[in-house]
Design a protein that fits this description.
single chain, eight-stranded parallel beta barrel, 36% helix, 14% strand, globular
Length: 466
């Protein structure tokens, strides 16, 4: 008999009052309006760790959603991922309140530089004891580009070319600058670091240049666990080469499974084990002791969904202004510079066309991903059906009403999954990478392209890869 795959779970969050479901911050039991307080994040982290979650996945975006109606007014008024705070700064507080929980933090490399960014990640990895992952994004909002003093966002595929360059420079700094044992902490001899074992990084790429040594000593993982969310043709190529975990969407197992298969095939072509990439799909779960109670909760939550806020979000994600469409008008494919994979999913051949009414509905089509309502056993059945049919590893559980939807999942679904032998009953020791890939060790696997830059004794300066 085949041993069931161990299910993986992240709490999918954003450091903003509204995330993927606009308007739910208005619910009388919702606490998301306190997103800018430490207590909010500490309570969230403790709940996720009580449920033995792998991590808290923190989404982020640079810019505001200003496509809908040609302006930012709707997004601001309806809290459509605005305002927001820096997700990096809430991680140390959550780490202090927990022992095992991991943290996937989104950072847009377009507006970073490898020399300073690698230190920031290394700092978080040190302070959390090796519990950090980086969700690599390249940015798609024109408002973000303008805010950063650029005339427009980079073209879609160019963003991934820049990402390749950024990661090569980062690997050199994380893996190739400091040898193991370079830090001596020798109180008697008065030597903290052996300078001969810290190497200068010289990188002259098409987008980024570095001439210097990594500012931080090696952290527990050196390179953080690498997350990625793009599933366009170019995004899949990038993810297959670099990602250790991928966040994707898809409103049916067939749609999600197609993306999973293409990424695993691309990983194999890149010389990696296809299952060295953990696949997470976003999911909204409404659970209660009985199905009837869960349906009542769903209907009560739906009352607070903000139609205009939802359309502002989808317009921003796709780059297509939905303001001029009738509620029942089909959403048609357009080539944009935003999330190409989302536009492709929403206009896939053979699917009933999506409409603005779909996007504004609190249900499966509005979620564009699994939307599961039921008793603990029904929810568990559906989760495992998605795992089997789409070949995914786990779920990023979307915030609905905070904190009660997360607490309900922890209290009701986690014990059900444990009783079926598909979810852990205790954390393993080790870093986030060691927890996600048991037996792998804290550092990148040798088959990962970043591992090629690891420096050994007697190495010279780290230059361009041949």
């Amino acid at each position: 008999m085949t041993t069931p795959r161990e299910l993986r779970l992240n709490a999918f969050q954003m450091a903003a009052p509204g995330h993927t479901w606009a308007g739910l911050w208005r619910h009388p039991r919702d606490t998301s309006a306190a997103y800018n307080t430490l207590d909010y994040w500490i309570d969230l982290a403790r709940t996720a760790e009580r449920g033995l979650f792998d991590g808290v996945f923190l989404a982020d975006v640079i810019g505001q959603y200003d496509v809908y109606g040609g302006g930012v007014e709707t997004a601001l008024a309806r809290a459509a991922q605005a305002p927001s705070i820096d997700p990096f700064l809430v991680v140390p507080a959550m780490a202090q309140a927990t022992r095992h929980l991991g943290f996937g933090v989104t950072a847009n490399l377009t507006y970073e530089h490898p020399f300073t960014f690698t230190r920031r990640i290394s700092t978080l990895d040190h302070l959390t004891g090796g519990r950090v992952g980086w969700n690599i994004v390249t940015g798609y909002l024109e408002s973000g580009a303008r805010g950063m003093g650029q005339p427009e966002a980079r073209a879609h595929d160019d963003r991934y070319d820049a990402g390749e360059d950024f990661l090569e420079a980062s690997y050199k700094l994380w893996e190739g600058s400091w040898e193991e044992g370079a830090v001596r902490r020798d109180r008697i001899g008065g030597v903290f670091t052996d300078p001969s074992r810290v190497h200068r990084v010289l990188h002259e790429g098409p987008y980024y240049r570095v001439d210097g040594r990594h500012l931080s000593e090696p952290s527990p993982q050196r390179t953080p666990v690498l997350y990625q969310a793009g599933t366009s043709a170019r995004g899949r190529q990038f993810a297959a080469r670099h990602a250790e975990a991928i966040f994707l969407n898809g409103h049916t197992p067939a749609v999600a499974g197609k993306a999973v298969r293409s990424i695993r095939e691309a990983a194999r072509d890149a010389g990696r084990d296809p299952y060295d990439i953990r696949m997470f799909i976003g999911a909204t779960v409404i659970v209660a002791p009985t199905r009837a109670e869960a349906l009542d909760l769903r209907d009560a939550y739906a009352h607070y969904i903000d139609r205009e806020g939802q359309l502002a979000l989808v317009s921003g994600w796709t780059g297509i202004d939905l303001a001029g469409l009738r509620p029942d008008e089909p959403f048609a494919y357009q080539k944009t510079n935003a999330m190409q994979s989302l536009v492709e999913n929403l206009t896939a051949p053979g699917e009933r066309p999506f409409t603005p009414a779909d996007f504004a509905a609190f249900g499966p089509r509005g979620a564009r991903a699994p939307f599961i309502v039921g008793s603990p056993s029904e929810v568990a059945d559906t989760l495992l059906e998605w795992v089997r049919e789409a070949d995914i590893d786990g779920f990023n559980l979307t915030r609905a009403v905070a904190p009660e939807t997360l607490e309900a999942f922890v209290d009701l679904v986690v014990p059900e999954l444990q009783s079926r032998g598909v979810f852990k009953t205790a954390y393993r020791d080790g870093t986030l990478r060691e927890k996600l890939f048991p037996g792998s060790g804290p550092h990148l696997k040798s088959s990962h392209p970043g591992a090629a830059f690891k420096v050994g004794p007697g190495a010279r300066d780290v230059r361009q890869a041949s």
